[in-house]
Design a protein that fits this description.
Blueprint lengths: L4 H5 L3 H5 L5 H27 L10 H28 L3 H31 L12 H5 L12 H10 L7 H10 L5 E2 L2 E2 L11 H23 L22
Antiparallel strand pairs: 1-2
Amino acid sequence: AGAISLEREKQTLDLLITTPISSLAIVLGKLLSALSWILLLLLASIPVTALVFTFGGVGPDDMVKGYIVLLVTALFYGSVGLFVSALVKRTQAATVINLVTVIALTAGTGFIFIFWSTMTNQGFLPNGGRDDGFVESLGRRPPEALLWFNPFIAQLDVVCGTETGFGGSCQIISAITNNPAAFNNGEFDNGFGAPRDSYWPRAAIAMAVTSLILIVLSVQLVSPTRRWRIRGRRSRPQPLAGDA
C-alpha cells in the first residue's frame, strides 16, 4: 500500500523518476520487492504440502494447480495494492482502501453470491438439490464472474477436482459453474461419472489479465509525462495565393 505513496510523502519519487530507471522498472521493482516474501513462503511450503501425497487422493497436477492459483492471487492483490498506492497520495488512505478492497473481493463477493442464490433459488442447489429443472433456474442464478477474484473459491475448486473432495462444498462449486452434468440424483459426482467444469482456470486468467491492466495503469500514474497520449495529426497551414 505504501510502495508509491510513501515515496511521494518523503518527496523522493521525483528524484527516482529523474534517474535512468524507467517508470515500468520502478513499478515492477516495487511489485517484485513486495511479493518476494510471499514467493519465499510459497517455496518453503512445498515440502510440507508434498506430505499430502502420503495420504493419497491428490496428484502432482492438483498440487501444481493449487500453487498456480496462489501465485496468480499474490500477483493480483499485489497489483491492486500498487495501483491504489500510485493513485492515492497518502499511505494511510491507500492502506484503508486496500483493506476494504480485499474484504470486498473475498468476503463481500461471497456474501453477495450467497444472498443472491438464496433470494432466487432458496439455496445454492436448484430445486432443493434435485437435478430436475436445472436449466430453467440458470437464468436466475448469480453470474460466475462475481467470484472470479475470490481466491478461496478458486482453491476450493482445485480441491474438489481431487479424488477426496469436500462433498457438500463441491456442490457449491457445481452451482457456481452452472454445470448440470455435475449432479447425479441430487449429489455431486466427483469427476468419476460426469464431466466436471473447472472453475479455477477462468478465475486465474481473470486475475492475471486484471493484474497486467493494473500494472500498466500504475506505470502511467508514476510517469511524469503522458507517454501513450494519442496525438492527432496537425494540419499544415495553407499558403496564401500571393506567397511564392
